[in-house]
Amino acid sequence: GAVEEQTEAIRDDETPPAPVVEVDPDAMQTCKRPGCGEKFTERQNADDACRFHAGQPIFHETKKGWSCCGTLVYDFDDFLKIPPCARGRHDANAAPLRFQKHTDKAATTS
Predict the structure, then answer these.
(1) pLDDT, tens digit, for every residue of 27-42?
(2) Cα–Cα distance between 101 and 108 in angstroms, integer?
(3) Rounded CA gap, 67 and 61, in Å?
């Protein structure tokens, strides 16, 4: 019957879909993507609305930059002015930044 068909459709090895979060399309939100920080509403959001850095910030001695851009600067104000290199949708729930330690040494494999 119908119950048996539903049971067969769900397998133990399948990952359930992520829950859908209901958001008021006109609620003002702040984009948390690195380099953006703009205010937006979901109704106005689009696939190219956000300009952000897709990589991680790098701070190495006096050099600062982004892993995605390859641009390194010495002054923190210049670091903040590095133009974002990626486009996408605004994301009010973007993951927090992870900081990288930059090394000039080649990675060794064992």
Answers:
(1) 999 999 999 999 999 9
(2) 16
(3) 15
